[in-house]
Amino acid sequence: MKKKFWLKLLLILVVLAAAVLLFAGNYLVDFAIVREENVEKDVAPPTEISEEAGNVIAENLAAINAQKEAWLAGTTVEEVSITSEDGLTLKGDLFAGDEDSHRWLLGIHGYTGQRSDTQNIASFYGEQGYHVLTPDMRAHGESEGKYIGMGWLDRKDVLQWIDFIIARDPQAEIILHGVSMGGATVMMVSGEELPENVKGIVEDCGYTSVWDIFADELAYLFHLPTFPMLDAANLMSKIRAGYDFREASAVKQVAKSTVPMVFIHGSEDNFVHTDMVYEVYEACQTPKELLVVEGAGHGQAYQMDPELYFTTVFDFLDRECF
After folding, report:
1. pTM here?
2. For a surface tag, which of 49, 126, 250, 300 has the fewest beta carbons within 10 Å of its beta carbon?
3. Helix count and strand count (H, E) for the chain
4. Which helix (H) or strand (E) holds 2?
5. What letter does residue 118 receive in the DSSP assignment?
6. CA distance 152 to 209
7. What local confidence, expressed as pLDDT, does residue 115 receive?
8. For the segment 28-43, what is each residue's pLDDT rounded down to a tens digit?
9. What contacts 52, CB < 8 A, 6 or more positions away?
10. 173 DSSP β-pair partners
């Protein structure tokens, strides 16, 4: 009788533990990748940069914003859309470049962002005569979708945006440029079979994998261990959102890339830790360049030293891609 009692108790405890884990996994999926309208998620640690660096960034941003406004005032914009493989309507803005140019920028924003976030960087390409396409990623902005793709689902959407550009301009020479989740997205796209029209990729502060960035966030936000909490969330993500955090690896995708790539990061990035850029850079086997901007936090590399940032980018593109 005692043996049966303890076996029954053990079974109850196992069932309760599994139920708690599934509940926790569901909660983490809801928190991390389920779309929330009009809610800005505060998931990043406070940016730890010096007062001097902050002043430099503020001054540079004022000049960049002025350039952006001048570019926007001098170009025409068309709202465009595509339908994803799984039936979502995805929207974007298409900015006209020089009439005789076939160079295109496809700019990809970050986590919980929107297409207008890429306009600062896009303005530098616009000043070079590029046509510019800035989409809202699935579950962001005006694009449909319940689940944030963290770059993995988005890579398939970006392939369709590439096809959209080529349909508009069969001679298009396309550069992909993404920041943060956008950086991870363009790296994940890099491992897919790309048309020859895609000439180069610029990734800025993208993470090595969805598993890695969520492991960091689990520790920072909830002070919880990766096992078994992230494993439970990963299971629920596969069931609900259709993707595996471990499979969603920028490192593995970059290793398959056939396209020249620029890797950029801030030296003081305490969100997507700077160490990650060295791992993806080492994985890349194509012509490549690494730029770590001293003093810059997450997503601040172009703000910290725009001249260094864009000279590095455009010199590389001109040398390796066109």
Report:
1. 0.95
2. 49
3. 11, 8
4. helix 2-33
5. G
6. 9
7. 97
8. 999 999 998 755 566 7
9. none
10. 103
**CA separation for the pair 64, 322 (Å, rounded):** 26
pLDDT tens for each residue of 69-127: 999 999 999 999 999 999 999 999 999 999 999 999 999 999 999 999 999 999 999 99
What's phi and psi for 264, nearest 5 deg? -130, 145
Task: For residue 14, give the nearest of 6, 26, 25 by alpha carbon.
Answer: 6
Compute the distance between CA of residue 103 and CA of residue 185 in angstroms, rounded to an integer. 21
Cβ pair 287, 263 in contact under 8 A:
no
Q: What is the rounded distance in angstroms from the CA atom of residue 202 to the CA atom of residue 287? A: 12
Residue carrying structure tokens 């030293």 = 305
User: Which of 134, 111, 112 has its CA nearest to residue 121?
Assistant: 134
Indicate the pairing of strand 103-108 with strand 173-179.
parallel
Contact predicate 200/321, CB 8 Å: yes
Q: Which two tokens stand for residue 77?
A: 């914009």
Residue with tokens 């005032």: 73
* C-beta separation of 115 from 134 below 8 A: yes
Q: Which amino acid is at 135?
A: P
